[in-house]
Amino acid sequence: MSDLLIPIKMYTFAPRNQDYIKKMTQYLIKAPQLQKAVVSLPASKSISNRALIIYALSGGQQMPQNLSDCDDTQVILDALRDMPEEINIKAAGTAMRFMTAYLSVMQGTHVLTGTARMKERPIGILVDALRKLGADITYEGTEGYPPLRITGQTIEGGELEIEGSVSSQYISALLMIGPVLKKGLEVKLTGDIISRPYIDLTLWMMREFGANAEWTANDTITVKPKPYVNGDYVIENDWSGASYWYEILALSSDREAQVILNGLTDGSKQGDSVVRYIFSLLGVKTVFQSKTSGKPQNVTLKCNGRCVPKLEYDFVNSPDLAQTVIVTCAALGIPFNFKGLATLKIKETDRIEAMKREMRKLGYVLHDRNDSELFWDGERCEPSMEEGIDTYNDHRMALSFAPFAMKSGSLIINNPQVVTKSYPHFWKSLQEAGFEVIVKSE
User: Fold this and answer.
1) Phi, psi values for residue 225, rounded to 5°
2) Which one, of 423, 40, 427, lies nearest residue 260 by Cα?
3) What is the pLDDT of residue 368?
4) Which of 54, 151, 354, 434 could connect to 109 by a Cys-Cys bridge, CB 3.0–4.6 Å?
5) Interval 350-362: pLDDT, tens
6) CB atoms within 10 A of CB 165
7) Cβ count within 10 A of residue 384
8) Residues known to be catalytic
9) How far apart are CA 374 and CA 336, in angstroms?
10) List of residues 6+ apart from 212 with CB closer than 8 A
């Protein structure tokens, strides 16, 4: 589709001002007596990644504003700008899925690859779906896994059936190319549909760029062959990033403490905006600066001191919040039973096993069930925090455990630079809030 081969303007991010974290392997985090913290949140990674793909498909001349400066967004930006024969998206699972669909409708042949862990993360369901639509994709290694050799071409489109229980990123990847397919796209989702808010976010963004894409039945999405229209687009800040500040406030011993977060939207389409509801059950009140819905604004987090005695929750629509809530509940002594965690097994690491191992270091014994549940009934063990919390090349392990320093006074985080995947300025923001971030080894 030569009419979609557009030049991506050169775009560089401002320096991260985090030279002190480069090549470091272990941080000692010391918590402050939190009083009032004003936090500049990162832009939404989920929205940034979708906006870049849609921007490119629109033949756009105007780059989306307030792009995330995280690693996952940067690899998509680099790929769209340079379009080399081999595209290495490193550890960015979203980029792997979105770029697989995108390259299928772009002229040229590319090999899409990533880290060793990325080559262990399944992609077969998406590849099979794209092949049914007419895409030319072959495996360079193990069947069903990256690397992929993709030869872009004109795709007719049409009807497609896919399991609703697969990663929503597969579905979003397919939907976003729908407007440039000759016949558009109709996707029927079978079985249980997980992470529906992320699908809704994709559809909402597509419509923001002029696409005709909507649910036409409870299990069916129809995308008309109507081209995208490029224009001004400003990305809101990240509710996932906000979750760690909810955790910090929830674990603060000062009931008068406050955290002010910038650039969040009341009524946000981000699935992780549900964090405000979850943490209302864990003692945190969310106050928006104004009653204006739909526009980014400052949000103040306050302690209300009221926590549920036990928390049961299904994270099927917001699995990236699970680690944060697990650590918070345990630290507050609140037993929990969390369901909907099946996708945690195929993230940057097996997050279910990682959480069990690392929570034991803090003195909490977690149990799992059916590869999709984690629960804690109050069982404790002897802590062993001296070796530090391992992060398994998983940004959310570092981000969700660091606030535990509010409970323990201090905590060691191993391989702390993994946060650049989604929240590059996290350690700097902690320092600005009064935390000490001390380099222990390099």
Assistant:
1) -75, 65
2) 40
3) 96
4) 151
5) 999 999 999 999 9
6) 16
7) 10
8) 320
9) 8
10) 179, 223, 224, 226
